[in-house]
């Protein structure tokens, strides 16, 4: 079983939400199933070179987020993932990134993309209470894989670790989930996430549904032809999961700590 996720409040003091050790040193936190995925021949070499790159950046004084790069994998086994939500790279400001795509600690101001995600939830579930927790660990515990395609970023420099090897590693994670027997929904928001759709085309896994829309960023959330606002993805995912005799995701719940 994966290591129990660390309580939210213990991770996000100003001093310790930065990367402290390279990814290879963090594999021990993961379950055997995830370690096997990340230690396959090609992926293992990429992880080794990426760890060397990050160690060099740390030695040069770079501030890198988040502390736990594989935290999204700690919550759910590959064969238990029921929804995948893909992001691009972690938030690049202090005390934001926590290893779950789009999620921030509750004490952190709500970023614009997450604010639009909550706006969409309110549209889809008008009779439900408004979600207040910015921390999305409750989604992760229900089998929602909140995965960025790059798992580290340097402070104040969005996209700074793109094309350094993370994409190969997260592609392996996406393929592993797609090939699992579990019924699952992929929510692909924006062109970057939708570019990963090719990874889902040739699998022999369980039932799979793909939902696409613009990214929830204010720059694109309401832009045609597939605006994020009004996409209906959360309700559609639950309806499809229930058709597959799976439990729906409680998107509103929002406990504020693991």
TrEMBL record:
It catalyses: Hydrolyzes single-stranded DNA or mismatched double-stranded DNA and polynucleotides, releasing free uracil. GO terms for cellular component: cytoplasm. It is an enzyme of class 3 (hydrolase). Gene3D superfamilies: Uracil-DNA glycosylase-like domain (3.40.470.10). Its EC number is 3.2.2.27. GO terms for biological process: base-excision repair, AP site formation via deaminated base removal. InterPro entries: UDG_fam1, Ura-DNA_Glyclase_AS, Uracil-DNA_glycosylase-like, Uracil-DNA_glycosylase-like_sf. The active site is at 89 (proton acceptor). GO terms for molecular function: uracil DNA N-glycosylase activity. Keywords: Cytoplasm, DNA damage, DNA repair, Hydrolase. SUPFAM superfamilies: Uracil-DNA glycosylase-like. It is found in: Cytoplasm. Residues 74-241 form the Uracil-DNA glycosylase-like domain. Its main location: cytoplasm. Pfam families: UDG. HAMAP family: UDG. Excises uracil residues from the DNA which can arise as a result of misincorporation of dUMP residues by DNA polymerase or due to deamination of cytosine. Belongs to the uracil-DNA glycosylase (UDG) superfamily. UNG family. This is Uracil-DNA glycosylase. The gene is ung.
């Amino acid at each position: 079983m994966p290591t129990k996720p660390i309580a939210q409040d213990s991770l996000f003091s100003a001093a310790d939400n930065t990367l402290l050790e390279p990814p290879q040193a963090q594999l021990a936190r993961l379950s055997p199933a995830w370690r096997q995925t990340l230690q396959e021949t090609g992926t293992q070499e990429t992880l080794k070179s990426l760890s060397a790159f990050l160690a060099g950046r740390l030695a040069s004084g770079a501030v890198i987020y988040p502390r736990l790069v594989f935290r999204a994998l700690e919550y759910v086994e590959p064969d238990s993932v029921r929804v995948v939500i893909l992001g691009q790279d972690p938030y690049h400001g202090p005390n934001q990134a926590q290893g779950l795509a789009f999620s921030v600690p509750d004490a952190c101001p709500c970023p614009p993309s997450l604010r639009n995600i909550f706006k969409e939830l309110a549209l889809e579930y008008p009779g439900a209470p408004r979600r207040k927790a910015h921390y999305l660990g409750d989604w992760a515990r229900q089998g929602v894989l909140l995965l960025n395609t790059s798992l580290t970023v340097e402070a104040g420099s969005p996209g700074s670790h793109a094309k350094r090897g993370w994409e190969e590693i997260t592609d392996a994670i996406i393929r592993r989930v797609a090939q699992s027997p579990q019924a699952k929904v992929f929510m692909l928001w924006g062109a970057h996430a939708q570019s990963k759709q090719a990874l889902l085309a040739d699998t022999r896994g369980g039932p799979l549904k793909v939902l696409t829309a613009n990214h929830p960023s204010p720059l694109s959330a309401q832009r045609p032809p597939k605006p994020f606002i009004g996409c209906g993805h959360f309700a559609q995912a639950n309806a499809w999961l229930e058709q597959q005799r799976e439990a729906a995701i409680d998107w509103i719940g929002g406990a504020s700590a693991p």
